[in-house]
Amino acid sequence: MRVSPDLMSDVAEVLLSEEQIAAKVAEMGARISADYEGRELTLVSVLKGSLPFMADLMRRITLPLRIDLMEVSSYGGATTESSGLVRILKDLSAPIEGRDVLLVEDIIDTGLTLNYLMRYLRGKNPHSIKICTLLDKPARRLVEIPLDYVGFEIPDAFVVGYGLDFGEVYRNLRFVGVLRPEAYES
Q1: pTM reported for the whole predicted model
Q2: Which fold has domain 18-154?
Q3: Which of 89, 121, 125, 167 has its CA 20 to 30 A from that of 103?
Q4: In whole angstroms, what is the distance from residue 135 CA to residue 150 CA?
């Protein structure tokens, strides 16, 4: 993997600007607040990519909430394709039984990881569980999953920024951009 000292030189185009993302997150936070009015919500972030999204989203939700973190892996290092094998690297730190849970994801593409994770979390007997994702890439979907809150539908391109990475790099970009193929093809 070759990474330029100037991360911007590896980005072919900015797909979603920092301003577009901020406006959509505010809109989603208001909708979630209205939908869960009078209830306490538990946000579960799937590390590492969704962390910036969840941090911004939780500041836009006006209800009592708890947060928890999980880390799962379905990619093998610096690759652009899911392996199909899902491993839980970090489980929840608190029980979710009887709680309203909102699973917060950065991107949904094939749906394989999310499908596994939803089955796993339902086994912990939450009162309800819904899905919130910043990005939806339906062109790659292999498993149909109902998404409750979707920020943006995006084309089938390899994207980085705002938490999304390639080989643990590019997460700190404040926008979502399409990575140049030369940056990930060896």
Answers
A1: 0.90
A2: Rossmann fold (3.40.50)
A3: 167
A4: 7
